[in-house]
Amino acid sequence: MDLNPLREKIDDIDRQLVELLNRRLSLAAEIGKFKRHSGGPIYVAEREDAVFRKVTALNEGPIKNDALRAIYREIMSAAIALEKPLVIAYLGPEATNSHAAALKKFGASVDYQPLLTFADIFTAVEKGEADYGIIPIENSTEGSVRDALDQFVTSDLKIVAQLNLEISYALISPEPLEKITKVYSKDQALAQCRLWLQRHLPHAQLVNASSTAHAVEIARDEPGAAAVAPPIAATHYGVPMLMRNIQDKANNTTRFFVIGKTPSGPVGGGRDMTSFLISLGDEASRQPGALLRMLKPLTERGINMSKIESRPSKRLAWDYYFYLDVTGHYDDPAMRAAVEELRTFCPLVKWLGSYPVAA
Asked: What is the documented function of this protein (predicted)?
């Protein structure tokens, strides 16, 4: 079979695609000029959500929607880079799950800044050293990342977007399985692979490392050591993977927040979520029915709650904050009315941000 006619058609389509992509990016650059002049944000989560929904609605196949979104992610990443060079702070070092989440959200055309702690990420965005930060907020296996949640108590940054990243771990080592005596990783990664490690390496010592990437560096250099880390880390550091997909649960997913200074506008159509930090106060929280009273202004207005978690305020003994995720946008009339009522008896009702529901 002569493939040349088919290849010539593909070449012709490629020429058209390149021309159209450059035309699209030129228009994005014009929008960037307007944004810089008006002081508007370069990254707009609600516009991003609208583009993804539009192109997937137009899709008639055979390309899958996930692949189409990945392509448009890079197109929009290139457009953002033309509008203004963005810096995205994440929990480093490179080749961690946070790095992978940042790349998934913002693509390869922006600049990334790995930082050591959640506090460093918040500080970098607050000072303008980074435009946005990306932080893990909860895992489907291990629950909330509480150190990240606690940063919102003192920060005025807003949650502007979210994403879900499917987490996959590999056993990484230059040693064969039978010679491994220590396994290094971040505590949460070890916990998410606990059963697999007990079955396959029952005599190995599990050692906490500062990051999954650092664990791979240790495994590379220490005899008898292995690391639990994302596959991207094995490639990045040039260390062999002994086993893939060693996480205990197949649907192991981590939810990430994007934080920034400028709040996101509403998407509408039931596709917005809002987060709050609420305190009932020390005395009120001890009274029977206090939590029910806090939730009543929301439930009476048909606002659905998808998450609630208590955290100690660290100011007084037995004083707690409540972290809530609810459906809807902060600017919705029902939400505004609920917040106004909550503020009549709650000493703290802090809006953390509204953002599109993760795809």
From this structure: Catalyzes the Claisen rearrangement of chorismate to prephenate and the decarboxylation/dehydration of prephenate to phenylpyruvate.
Rounded CA separation 129/77 (Å): 19
**Would residue 322 show up in a list of annotated catalytic residues for this protein?**
no
Regarding the domain with residue range 1-84, which homologous superfamily does it belong to in the CATH classification? Answer: Chorismate mutase (1.20.59.10)
List pLDDT tens digits, range 262-311: 999 999 888 999 999 998 876 555 667 788 889 999 999 999 999 999 88
**Closest to 228 measured CA to CA, from 183, 179, 277, 167:** 183
CA 96 vs CA 255, 292, 347: distances in Å: 14, 40, 39
From the list 52, 122, 152, 256, the catalytic residue is 256
- Give, in degrees to the nearest 5, the angle at Cα 201 between 199 and 205: 130
256 is catalytic: yes
Q: Tell me: the pLDDT tens digits for 112-143? A: 999 999 999 999 999 999 999 999 999 887 78
- Give CA 119 to chain center in angstroms: 16
> For the chain, which residues make up each domain, given as ranges?
1-84, 86-167, 170-251, 265-356
**Catalytic member of 96, 212, 254, 274:** 254
